[in-house]
Design a protein that fits this description.
Layout: E1 10-14, H1 25-28, E2 34-39, H2 43-55, E3 61-66, H3 72-85, E4 89-94, H4 97-109, E5 113-117, E6 129-134, E7 137-142, E8 148-152, H5 153-157, H6 161-186, H7 194-211, H8 218-239, H9 248-259, H10 266-280, H11 284-296, H12 310-319, H13 337-347
Parallel strand pairs: 1-8, 2-3, 2-4, 4-5, 5-8
Antiparallel strand pairs: 6-7
The structure holds zinc ion.
Zinc ion (ZN) binds next to α10.
Length: 364
């Protein structure tokens, strides 16, 4: 019955969050502490320098460590350094990989992690899951939740529009994932955590309410996307797995990664998966209703828009159930190639092609 749930104890999402850091409890907690800043290259390195200069008057020692990628080699190298030099905190600074690497190293070395996401491109900005590269393949592993998350909306505003859209694609998967979870529950395969499900549902609905606002602007959109992705991450922590935010649509995306060359961003592939899952879940009308939102939010409405062929999509849908042991709508069908083809034709008609536009040209 007892379940230990970890959630970030500090969550800061505001303009100028980095320069205002000295006014926060996070800064107070750094007194005489040793801090490792793990960042990517170029822009995130500059941000790491800015954070180092901001916290240096308070901390005892601050060191910047770069990670070029999220491979096991890099993680092992950083882990050794952390074990040898025993920092009190790890700050993960960057888009996706630096955050994932920081979460993995922090978990393995039992050092609390504070994340500074520079892009809201997936729910990795605050989740108990990290993606690492092993033998040239991306694998998701469970990690401890970050102690705190600091999102500077000014920094997020400079994130490329395509990454913002990808984050939104990842968020939209909550609905189809929750349907699949309910299905697994009804089939007697899995328990459903109602509280986690409610959080994941509210996360995506609150974001859609923002999208429907007449006074929607980019700043509001970014803030709402970041907040909802964080709520999704916390829902996963409550559930103890990625279940509330990852169902058949994610299995299709994983199959595209493993079997079809991983040609697009995670959230873009998930967005394509959402359309297929909605259709299979009997919500054909909602597939059409999603199209205007996809256009507005810079998401692909056709798989060819992100570089996949019909043959690759057929393979991905066929192999999706084998990607992990997770009961979804895909298990309720035993689709033949012919049936998959007719689903693809219905979900992705010719007129759905080439509508893919950057979010900057569609949202104010
Ligand atoms: Zn995802």
């Amino acid at each position: 019955m007892a379940n230990k749930i970890r959630i970030p104890i500090h969550l800061i999402i505001e303009h100028g969050a980095v320069s205002r850091l000295p006014k926060t409890p996070i800064y107070e907690g750094l007194k005489d502490k040793k801090v490792f800043l793990i960042c990517g290259s170029n822009n995130t390195h500059q941000l790491a320098e800015m954070i180092r200069d901001t916290i240096r008057p308070q901390a005892r020692e601050v060191h910047i460590l770069s990670c070029e990628n999220n491979t096991l080699d890099i993680i092992n190298r950083l882990e050794r350094k952390v074990l040898e030099e025993t920092p009190d905190y790890i700050f993960g600074i960057g888009g996706g990989k630096a955050l994932d690497v920081s979460k993995v190293v922090g978990t393995r070395c039992n050092v609390p992690v504070v994340l500074f996401p520079t892009a809201a491109s997936s729910d990795a900005i605050c989740s108990p899951v990290a993606v690492i590269k092993m033998r040239n393949r991306s694998t998701s592993i469970g990690v401890r939740m970050p102690l705190a998350v600091v999102i500077d909306l000014d920094i997020l505003a400079s994130c490329p529009p395509r990454l913002v859209s990808a984050g939104i694609g990842d968020l939209l998967s909550n609905k189809t994932a929750l349907f699949d979870w309910q299905l697994a529950h009804q089939a007697g395969v899995e328990e459903m955590n109602t509280f986690a499900a409610l959080m994941a549902k509210n996360a995506v609905e609150s974001f859609m309410n923002t999208v429907n606002r007449r006074d929607l602007d980019r700043s509001r959109l970014l803030k709402s996307a970041a907040e909802s992705l964080i709520m999704s991450g916390i829902a996963m922590s409550v559930a103890g797995s990625s279940r509330p935010c990852s169902g058949s649509e994610h299995l299709i995306s994983h199959a595209l990664d493993f079997h079809c060359g991983a040609k697009a961003l995670h959230g873009e592939q998930v967005a394509i998966g959402v359309l297929i899952s909605q259709y299979l879940q009997g919500k054909r009308q909602q597939v059409e209703e999603l199209h205007p939102y996809y256009e507005k939010l810079g998401l692909p409405t056709h798989y060819e828009d992100i570089g996949y062929t019909k043959e690759e999509m057929r393979r991905a849908i066929r192999l999706a159930p084998s990607m992990r042991n997770r009961y979804t709508i895909l298990d309720e069908f035993n689709l033949t190639d012919k049936e998959i083809d007719s689903i693809l034709e219905e979900v992705f008609p010719e007129e759905a092609k080439n509508r893919y536009r950057s979010i900057g040209s569609s949202a104010k």
